[in-house]
Amino acid sequence: MSNNLFDFGMIGLGVMGRNLLLNTADHGFSVIGFDKDPAKTVALEAAATEGTTVKGVPDLAQMVQQLQRPRKLMMLVPAGKPVDDVIESLLPLVEKGDVIIDGGNSHYTDTLRRVKYLRDKEIHFMGVGVSGGEQGARTGPSIMPGGDLEAYAHVKPLLEAIAAKVNGEPCVAYLGKEGAGHYVKMVHNGIEYAIMQLISESYTLLKHAGLNNDQLHETFKAWNEGVLQSFLVEITADIFLQDDDKTSARLLDVISDKAGSKGTGKWTSQDSMELPVAVSVIDSAVAMRTVSGYKEERIQAAALYNEAGAPINVSTDEWIKQVHDALYFGTILSYAQGLAMLFQASKELAMDIPLPDAVSVWRGGCIIRSTLLATFTHAYKNTPGLSNILLDSGVAEIIKSVESNTRAVAAQAALSGIPAAALMSSLAYFDAYRSERMATNLIQAQRDYFGAHTYQRIDIPGTFHTEWNH
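RESULT FIELD:
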């Protein structure tokens, strides 16, 4: 460490900030962290690996002064006003050419504004998505940087060192201009919502057939050894075995069914409508978390409508196979919708997002890592510029192989009164997407009838309006 200067700084030493900084130090970089809470600066130094250079300070100016130029520093603070407050605190302390990184879950529109604001002051700003939770931050997260390409050149060696590795390749890549990094992370989180909802529906469908927690563990464990291999399926298998330390029950059985969220799934749904791109599986996942919050109303409705649905009329082994295929189908559709959204946003918002690189970055470290991503990588290699992975022949073969069982599960769920909104949304989207002609000609007629909104014809070019017979 020359002249007692540090390679990298971190503002915010909560669990994520501390772990990311310790990870950076483990890879040979000298690091310094700032937090207003002195206990957190002490905890940072205490957790450092022996032989690494790690320092915690309770004064922001002290941290900035001790960084090598151009300074490279990241903030991991709550999204919104706290990020702007930190930027304003930094402006008197940083210099032309320094690099400020927002590693939190900021909305991409805020990142766009900050990029432009700091560009005018000749300060580099990057929005960087980080996925993997506290464990990923410590041992290797998936990192999604976007924004200033010149700034990325300064931090690329560091980010590649600390990122998760798959077959020796770091799970980080420059993902586009302006707010692209946070946009990709937002869509990642939307896909995460969708897959978590599909897994919870699969759990409900299997539990309805009589599987206990041990059997559910064995089922998901077996699934994780096949085509469904993924981080979320892996941790789901573990969850079924966790005992509760307060009762003799399994912990899952005493956890409330009111689910929380931090808003990134909602952002995905909202922003998809602006493009517009249909992400119905993500929309369903967001909606079901909202419905989960209606606990008192759901208790009243259960008393009003609690009629037994049709029993599941296939063997347990066959039902497990069918639900497996339905989860596989829905998971592919979740990725397809998210990636289609990135494809459209890349064009509409001029972010130049390289989809093959986004898929590659998600292969390790992140919450939605899955063996399926190798299939999607192959699809993009086969057809550069692919607008939707459902148009790839390899993906089509997989979909065809599980379509029949998916329909069987959706039908059984409907007959049995089991809520399976994400699964049904994935099937409805697929059926609409593969329809050469949809029934929306009637909607166009209705719009022209009541509002003179006009319509196009299939036989003559142009725009038409009819005085409908009332």
